[in-house]
């Protein structure tokens, strides 16, 4: 690193020196840059003065690189390549739906909507270089606020400030019980109060679905069991199937999580039916808010076309 007070090479000096290093001829190098030979020679001399090193061995017939010149040529080539990459990347960001985009998704949403959304992104936004990060709500909220993520799919509303929240769809919670549970024999909807006295198993802390289930239980005076927790929704379903309790299951997860031979019985709730709203959130300060709003619209369209057991928010 150069101290701030010391002169540093300019891009023009590096470009001029690289041309000479490539051609080993001042006139040809000047022609390749469409500049005069004296201007080229002056730029190279200025670079040697800045670096306090002789970079070229000049004779009447040819030009050779000194050992220092060979090292500088290698570094200069990397610097100029990096500058070209920088210019190209910035130019890409000026075009809508182009360049990198980092999407965060909570685990209780990712397995059920990504099979629909990933082909949509490839089809509708082919120049967008999408990467997906699955993590709990607290993690992806922190990362979108810090700029490590651009958009997040999660349950709304959040308590985060500085974010635009675009509701995408609503879905009901179903009551999942073991196949041999007395509630498994019924067919009609059940009241929320049914949760009283049941052993309710939940996800581990950090999952927003856990907090939503606790809120439903709290509203009717029910208590979740404190002895059994799951790290994922598939594990939670298996705990219920194994007879360790009952749980609340988002309806979007039903086709995936109850398609096995051994599966829990499901009961709907009477109104008011508990549920959740899933949406897309992004920084209000982002320069790409208009693009993200259009992406939210495209997500709604893709989900509506697949007729998932959800209600699309207009």
UniProtKB/TrEMBL annotation:
CDD domains: PBP2_OxyR
Transmembrane segments: none
Pfam families (alphabetical): HTH_1, LysR_substrate
Gene3D superfamilies linked to this entry: Periplasmic binding protein-like II (3.40.190.10), Winged helix-like DNA-binding domain superfamily/Winged helix DNA-binding domain (1.10.10.10)
InterPro entries documented for this protein: LysR_HTH_N, LysR_subst-bd, WH-like_DNA-bd_sf, WH_DNA-bd_sf
UniProt KW keywords: Activator, DNA-binding, Transcription, Transcription regulation
Record-annotated HTH lysR-type domain positions: 9-66
Keyword set includes Metal-binding: no
Family membership noted in the UniProt record: Belongs to the LysR transcriptional regulatory family.
Name recorded for this polypeptide: Probable hydrogen peroxide-inducible genes activator
């Amino acid at each position: 690193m150069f101290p701030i007070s010391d002169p540093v090479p300019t891009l023009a000096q590096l470009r001029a020196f690289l041309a000479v290093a490539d051609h080993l001829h001042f006139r040809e190098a000047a022609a390749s840059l469409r500049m005069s030979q004296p201007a080229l020679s002056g730029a190279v001399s200025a670079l040697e003065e800045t670096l306090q090193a002789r970079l070229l061995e000049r004779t009447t017939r040819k030009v050779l690189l000194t050992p220092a010149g060979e090292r500088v040529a290698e570094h200069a080539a990397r610097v100029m390549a990096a500058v070209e990459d920088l210019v190209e990347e910035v130019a890409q960001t000026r075009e809508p739906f182009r360049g990198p985009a980092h999407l965060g998704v909570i685990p209780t949403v990712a397995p059920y909507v990504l099979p629909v959304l990933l082909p949509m992104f490839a089809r509708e936004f082919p120049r967008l270089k999408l990467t997906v990060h699955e993590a709990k709500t607290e993690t992806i909220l922190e990362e979108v606020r810090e700029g490590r993520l651009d958009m997040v799919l999660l349950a709304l509303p959040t308590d985060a400030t500085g974010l635009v929240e675009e509701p995408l769809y609503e879905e009901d919670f179903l009551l999942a019980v073991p196949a041999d549970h007395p509630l498994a024999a019924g067919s009609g909807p059940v009241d929320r109060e049914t949760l009283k006295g049941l052993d309710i198993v939940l996800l581990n802390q950090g999952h927003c679905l856990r907090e939503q289930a606790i809120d439903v239980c709290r509203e009717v005076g029910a208590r979740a069991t404190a002895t059994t927790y799951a790290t994922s929704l598939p594990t939670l379903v298996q705990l219920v199937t194994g007879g360790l309790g009952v749980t609340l299951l988002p309806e979007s997860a039903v086709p995936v999580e109850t398609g096995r031979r051994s599966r829990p019985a499901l009961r709907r709730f009477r109104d008011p039916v508990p549920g959740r709203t899933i949406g897309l959130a992004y920084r209000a300060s982002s320069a790409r808010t208009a693009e993200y709003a259009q992406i939210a619209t495209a997500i709604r369209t893709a989900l509506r076309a697949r007729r998932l057991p959800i209600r699309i928010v207009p």
